[in-house]
Design goal:
The complex is a heterodimer of chains A (343) and B (301).
Chain A: H1 2-28, H2 32-37, H3 49-56, H4 62-74, E1 80-81, E2 86-87, H5 88-123, H6 128-142, H7 145-159, H8 170-178, H9 190-196, H10 200-237, H11 240-247, H12 252-290, H13 295-304, H14 308-336, H15 338-342
Antiparallel strand pairs in A: 1-2
Helix pairs in contact in A: 1-14, 5-6, 5-10, 5-12, 6-10, 7-10, 7-12, 9-10, 10-12, 11-12, 12-13, 12-14, 13-14
Chain B: H1 6-20, H2 22-39, H3 41-44, H4 83-119, H5 121-135, H6 139-150, H7 154-181, H8 184-191, H9 196-233, H10 244-250, H11 266-294, H12 296-299
Classes of the chains: A mainly alpha (343), B mainly alpha (301).
Chain lengths: 343, 301
C-alpha cells in the first residue's frame, strides 16, 4: 500500500510538472514582442518594447524563462490579472469561495440522486421506470449547460420572477460593502458567513440565488453517475452470489441494498474523477450565465480579454485538484477493493 | 441453407440489434433530417452572399429581435439576422465542427493508442505519461487556453478541440489492445510472420474499434456543445456567422422580455438552442444504441 501511494505521489509531481511545462509552452507561442506589449499602456511607450524584452529576458531560451517563471509561481507570485485588476493570487481567493459554495451544495445532490436513480433503474431493468430515467438521463446529457441555464433563467427569472441571477441581491451586497465591520467575511461564502454573523436573511437570500445554478448543474451532471450505477447494478444482479442469496431466502431489499449496491458502487468511485472534471467545466457555463463571479466566470472573462496569467493559474489549479482527486480516489479504491491492494 | 460469411452474419446481427432499439431509430431519423438540411442548405435557404454563404443575411441593425413573419419565418434575432437562415446553415457548421474534431481526435488517438498498447515498453510509458499530463486539465479549460494562444475563430476552436480530444481515444483503444495483444489469434499471426503493422490493422483494430465508434458518436455531440459554448462566450464564431452557439449568444440579452410579456423573445433562444439539443441528442441516442448493441455482456440476451 505504501509503495502504491509513493508511486502515485511521484506521478502527481510529474503530472504537475508536465502541466506547467505544457501551459508555459502555450504561453510561449506568443512572440516576445506580444508578451512585452502587456507592459505597455500608452502608444508612446511602444518604442520601449525592445527595452522591455531585454529587461525581462523575454527572448531567452525556453528553459531559462520557464525556471524563472516557476520560481515566482512557487513563491506564490502568479502575476497580475487584468480582469480583476489585482494580483492573480489575491484575486483567486476572492473568486474561489463562490465556486466552492456552489459545488458544496451540488455535489451531495448529484451523488445521492445519481446513485438512487441508477439503482432504481438497474433494479427495474426494462420497465417503464428504467426507460423513463434512461431517456431523462440521455436528454440531460444532451443539454448544453449554458443553454439549459438560459432557459431556466427565462422561465424562473423572467416568467415567474422567482430567482434572480448573481450571488446576492443588490441591497444586501451594498449593505455588506458599506458595513464591513458588522459583517465579517470569514469564508467568502455568503450562506455560511450569514449564519456565522447571525444574519439569516443573507443566508436565505444567498440560498435563493443558488437554487437555479445548483439545479442546472445537477441535471446536467447527474446522468453520468446514474448510467454507471445502472450498468453496475445490472452486472452485479446477474452474478452468482445474488442467486445464492436468493436461494437462501434473503428478501429483495437485502439483496439490492446490502449485496448488489455495495459492489455496484465501485465503478462509481472510478468515474468520480471524471465527475470532478465535468463539474469544473460545468461551473464555467453556470457561472457565466448566472453571472456569479467565481473561478469559472473569471476564466471565461480572462479568455476573452487575453488575460494569460489567469488562464495559467486556473489551469494549474484545476490540474492540481484533478490529480489530487484521482490520487485520493485511487487510494480509496484500493481501500475498498482488496483485489487491487494485493496486486 | 447457404452458409454466410461469419463477418457478414455478425454485421447483420449487429444491425438487427441496433435497429431493434427505439432510441436508435429516433437518433438516426433525427440525424437523417439534419444531414438532409445540411446537404441541401443552398436550396433551402439560398445564400445572399454567394462568396460567403455562412454569413447570415440581415436587414437593418436594430438590436431587438423581431417575431416570426412572412419574410422571416422563424423571426430575426438581435441585429436582425434571419434565424431560419442561421439555423439551416448552422447545421452545416455543426457537422463541420463535429466531423473535423472527432475525425482528427479519433485518428490521432487510435493511432497513438494502438502503437502504445501494441509495442508496450518505453514507448507505452512515454505516451501514457504525456496523456496523463493532458488528461489533468478539463477539456474546456485547456481548449480555452489553446484558443487564447492561437487567436479566436471557429477554425481555431476546431483545432483546439481536436488537440484536446484525442486523449480519450488513446486510453480506450490502449486498454482494448492490451487485452487483445496476448490472445491466441494474435500470437498465431505473429508466428506466421505477419508484420506488426498488418497485425494491428487486420487483426487487432477491427476487434477493438467498437468502443471507439460509441465514443466517437457521443463525442460528436459533446464537441458540438463545447464549440457552441465557446462561441457563446465569444471565443468562437464571429458575429453574424451561422453558428447555433453564436445565435444563442446574440439573443442572450433578450431572455427576459419587457414587463408584462416576459417570454416575448422566446424564439431567438429556443430555435437555435433547440437545434443544438436535438443534434446532440441524435448522436447520443445513436451512441447509446451502439453501446447496447456492442456490449458483449448484453449482446446475446
Amino acid at each position: 500500500m505504501l509503495a502504491f501511494i509513493t508511486r502515485r505521489l511521484l506521478l502527481l509531481i510529474f503530472v504537475l510538472f508536465g502541466v506547467s511545462v505544457l501551459l508555459f509552452g502555450i504561453l510561449m507561442t506568443f512572440s516576445p514582442e506580444r508578451r512585452a506589449a502587456t507592459y505597455v499602456t500608452s502608444p508612446q511607450q511602444a518604442k520601449d518594447i525592445p527595452k522591455i524584452i531585454k529587461q525581462f529576458g523575454l527572448d531567452d531560451p525556453f528553459y531559462i524563462q520557464y525556471f524563472r517563471w516557476m520560481k515566482e509561481v512557487l513563491k506564490g507570485n502568479m502575476g497580475w490579472s487584468l480582469v480583476a485588476s489585482r494580483p492573480v493570487g489575491e484575486a483567486f481567493w476572492n473568486y474561489f469561495p463562490v465556486t466552492l459554495e456552489m459545488n458544496l451544495f451540488a455535489a451531495p445532490i448529484v451523488i445521492i440522486f445519481g446513485i438512487w436513480l441508477g439503482t432504481l433503474s438497474g433494479i427495474h431493468r426494462d420497465t417503464w421506470i428504467d426507460h423513463t430515467t434512461r431517456i431523462l438521463a440521455i436528454v440531460g446529457w444532451s443539454l448544453p449547460t449554458f443553454l439549459f441555464a438560459l432557459v431556466l433563467l427565462m422561465i424562473f427569472y423572467g416568467y415567474f420572477q422567482l430567482f434572480s441571477p448573481g450571488v446576492l441581491s443588490d441591497q444586501l451586497t451594498m449593505f455588506i460593502i458599506d458595513n464591513p465591520e458588522t459583517f465579517t467575511r470569514f469564508t467568502g461564502m455568503y450562506t455560511i458567513d450569514g449564519i456565522l454573523n447571525g444574519r439569516f436573511d443573507i443566508t436565505l437570500n444567498a440560498l435563493a440565488h443558488l437554487v437555479l445554478p445548483v439545479s442546472t448543474y445537477v441535471i446536467v451532471v447527474v446522468a453520468l453517475n446514474m448510467r454507471v450505477m445502472r450498468s453496475g447494478m445490472i452486472e452485479e444482479l446477474s452474478k452468482d452470489y445474488v442467486m445464492t442469496a436468493q436461494a437462501k431466502g434473503a428478501d429483495k431489499k437485502t439483496i439490492y441494498i446490502k449485496h448488489a449496491r455495495r459492489n455496484a458502487l465501485l465503478p462509481v468511485v472510478t468515474v468520480a474523477g471524471q465527475l470532478v472534471a465535468l463539474s469544473m467545466e460545468g461551473s464555467i457555463a453556470v457561472e457565466v450565465v448566472y453571472n456569479r463571479h467565481g473561478i469559472g466566470w473569471w476564466l471565461a472573462e480572462s479568455a476573452v480579454q487575453l488575460d494569460m496569467p489567469v488562464l495559467m493559474c486556473i489551469c494549474l489549479f484545476m490540474g492540481v485538484v484533478f490529480v489530487i482527486t484521482n490520487l485520493t480516489l485511487d487510494i480509496l479504491y484500493a481501500y475498498i477493493d482488496p483485489r487491487i491492494r494485493l496486486n | 441453407m447457404t452458409q454466410q460469411h461469419p463477418r457478414l452474419r455478425e454485421f447483420k446481427f449487429t444491425l438487427y440489434r441496433i435497429f431493434r432499439n427505439p432510441s436508435a431509430i429516433i437518433g438516426f431519423s433525427l440525424l437523417f433530417i439534419f444531414a438532409g438540411v445540411a446537404l441541401f442548405a443552398p436550396q433551402i435557404a439560398p445564400p445572399k452572399y454567394p462568396h460567403n454563404p455562412y454569413l447570415m443575411p440581415h436587414k437593418g441593425f436594430s438590436p431587438t429581435p423581431k417575431p416570426p413573419s412572412q419574410t422571416n419565418i422563424f423571426g430575426t434575432t438581435s441585429g436582425q439576422y434571419d434565424i431560419f437562415y442561421g439555423v439551416v446553415w448552422g447545421t452545416r457548421t455543426a457537422f463541420k465542427i463535429g466531423m473535423f474534431v472527432v475525425g482528427i481526435a479519433a485518428f490521432v488517438g487510435v493511432t497513438l493508442g494502438a502503437v502504445s498498447g501494441y509495442l508496450g515498453g518505453i514507448v507505452d510509458e512515454a505516451l501514457m505519461r504525456i496523456t496523463d499530463v493532458i488528461w489533468a486539465i478539463p477539456t474546456l479549460v485547456l481548449a480555452m487556453a489553446i484558443i487564447v494562444a492561437f487567436g479566436r475563430g471557429l477554425d481555431k476552436v476546431m483545432i483546439a478541440l481536436a488537440l484536446v480530444g484525442w486523449r480519450w481515444y488513446v486510453r480506450v483503444i490502449r486498454s482494448e489492445i492490451l487485452t487483445l495483444r496476448d490472445q491466441d489469434f494474435v500470437q498465431a499471426a505473429k508466428i506466421m510472420g505477419v508484420s506488426d503493422l498488418k497485425i494491428i490493422l487486420r487483426h487487432i483494430l477491427p476487434n477493438a474499434i467498437y468502443p471507439v465508434l460509441i465514443m466517437a458518436s457521443m463525442d460528436m455531440g459533446s464537441m458540438v456543445i463545447t464549440a457552441s459554448f465557446l462561441s457563446f462566450v465569444g471565443l468562437g464564431a464571429p458575429k453574424g456567422y451561422a453558428d447555433w452557439g453564436q445565435m444563442v449568444a446574440l439573443a442572450r440579452n433578450y431572455i427576459v422580455g419587457p414587463p408584462g410579456d416576459p417570454l416575448k423573445f422566446w424564439y431567438a433562444i429556443v430555435i437555435p438552442g433547440g437545434c443544438i439539443v436535438l443534434f446532440v441528442l441524435a448522436w447520443n441516442l445513436i451512441g447509446d444504441a451502439l453501446r447496447d448493441a456492442f456490449d458483449p455482456k448484453l449482446r446475446r440476451r
